[in-house]
Amino acid sequence: MSTTIRLAIGSVFVGILVLGIKFLAWWITGSVALYSDALESTVNVATAIAALIAIRIAARPADAEHPYGHHKAEFFSAVLEGVMIIVAALLILREAYLNLLHPVSLDLPVEGLIVNGGATVINALWAWVLVTRGRRLRSPALVADGRHLFTDVVTSAGVALGLLVAIVTGWWILDPLMAAVVAVNILWSGSKVVRESLSGLMDEAVPQKTLDAIRGIISAEAGGAVEAHDLRTRHAGKATFIDFHLVVPGDMTVFDAHEICDRVEAVLKKEIQGSKITIHVEPEHKQKHSGIIVLD
C-alpha cells in the first residue's frame, strides 16, 4: 500500500474522530456556531472518502482505454470536495439566519469550547501532515483535503473567540453571527478548491518556475542539436507531461539524435518528478529561430 493511500485512509479515521468530538460539543451547548463547525466536519469525512477513492483510481497504470493514465481522478475528487464545502456553507447560513431571528443562551458553553478545542488541535496537526506530505507526494487530493482542514482550524478558532465574547458579555446573538462568518469563510475556501482543481482538468501549464527549469535542462543537455521549440507542458496529479520539437542537423544519424533525446529525458525525469516526455525530432530546415537555444 502506497504512502498516499495510507494518508487518505488516515484522513477518513481522523475525520470521523473529529466529527464525533465536535457533535459532542454542539450537544453539550446547543450552539449554532459549534453546530456549523460540526457540520463542516461531516463534509470532511465525506470528502476524505472521495479522496481515498480518487487516489486509488489515480494509482492505476495506463491501459487501452486510458493510455495517458488515470492521474486526473484526483482533480475530480478535489472538485467534489469544493462543491460539498459550498453546500455545507449554505446549510450553515440557513441555521445562522434562523437563530438570528430567535437568539438563545447556551448550556455549558465553557465545557463545550474545551471539547471543541481538542478537536481543533487534532485537525491542525493532521492538516499539517496532509499538506506537507501531499506536496512531497504530488497529490492534489491530499493537499486539497489538508487546506480544507486548515480552513476548519481557522474557523474553529474564530468560533471559539466569538463564543468567549458572548459568554463574557451575554450577547448571545454573537453565536449565530459567528456561524454566518464561518459560512462565508467556508464558501471562499470551497470556491478556491474548485478553481484550482478545474485548472488541472483544463490542462493548465506547469508553474513558471518549473517551466524555466525544463527550458534550462533542455538547453544544457541537448548538445549536438540546433534548437528546441513548441515546448508544451501540463500537469495531472503526480504526472507532468512535457513535449517539444528538437531540431537536429540534417545529416545527423538516427542513432545520434536518439542519444541526445535519451540524455535530455534522463535529466528531465531526474529533476522533474513524475515527468512523461515526448520529443519530436526534426531536420534543421524546420528551425524556427524562436525556441530554446541549445548550448554547445
UniProtKB/TrEMBL annotation:
Residues 207-284 form the Cation efflux protein cytoplasmic domain. It is found in: Membrane. The chain crosses the membrane at residues 7-29, 41-59, 75-93, 113-132, 153-174. It is a multi-pass membrane protein. Residues 11-202 form the Cation efflux protein transmembrane domain. The keyword Transmembrane helix applies. Keywords: Membrane, Transmembrane, Transmembrane helix, Transport. NCBIfam families: CDF (TIGR01297). Belongs to the cation diffusion facilitator (CDF) transporter (TC 2.A.4) family. This is Cation diffusion facilitator family transporter.
